[in-house]
Specification:
Distance between the termini: 131 Å
Number of helices: 4
Strand content: 5-15%
Strand order of the largest sheet: 1-2
Helix content: over 70%
Shape: flat
Largest sheet: 2 strands, antiparallel
């Protein structure tokens, strides 16, 4: 009887040990989420005492450690963002300085270039515009003439294609008739040969 009781105590101890390990594994898994979920889990697993919540010390230590880790991570990210912002501010300032220099040079060029250089000769902007529009007009006229010639060539090509197709059709008809005639003559020749063979027998 005593051995039976010892065996029951042993089984109870092993079962209790496995249950505690399972609870600890579930607790660690639940304490690995976001801080909000971890706090919710701690509140859910806490015991009630009057209007208070009794929280396990291990939960508080894990929450403290995770909170400090999150704070340190946020501090590091904030420092990185500050450095990045500082670098961007420096780049923006450099771009502003470059833009200011470029604008100054552009203003000088606008003032200096009242005339336009065309093939090395300075001419007024009005004459330059007239020359350019004249060149564009001539090019457009050449393009229109070329399109009309292309249209005529296309029409000629289409007519030639139609004539070729008609010629091919006529040739196919001629071949068909010649084949029929050849077959007819072949049959007549065979008939004559058959008649000649019968008469010679």
């Amino acid at each position: 009887m005593r051995k039976y009781i010892q065996a029951l105590i042993f089984l109870f101890t092993i079962t209790l040990s496995f249950a505690q390990d399972s609870i600890q594994i579930n607790t660690q898994a639940s304490m690995n989420g976001s801080l909000n979920k971890q706090f919710d889990y701690v509140v859910q697993k806490s015991n009630n005492f009057q209007e208070y919540k009794v929280v396990k010390k291990d939960f508080l230590l894990i929450l403290k450690r995770n909170s400090l880790d999150s704070i340190n991570r946020f501090k590091t990210e904030l420092a990185d963002l500050k450095n990045e912002f500082s670098n961007h501010a420096t780049i923006v300032q450099q771009l502003k300085d470059t833009l200011k220099t470029t604008q100054t040079e552009l203003d000088k060029l606008k003032i200096a270039q009242d005339n336009v250089s065309f093939f090395g000769a300075p001419i007024s902007k009005t004459n330059y515009n007239l020359i350019m529009w004249g060149i564009v007009s001539v090019l457009l006229l050449i393009l229109v003439i070329f399109l009309f010639q292309l249209k005529g060539a296309k029409s000629i090509a289409s007519d030639a294609k139609n004539a070729l197709e008609k010629l091919e059709d006529d040739y196919e008809e001629y071949k068909r008739k010649a084949l029929e005639k050849e077959q007819k003559l072949g049959r007549q020749l065979q008939d004559e040969i058959n008649k000649h063979n019968k008469s010679s027998k």
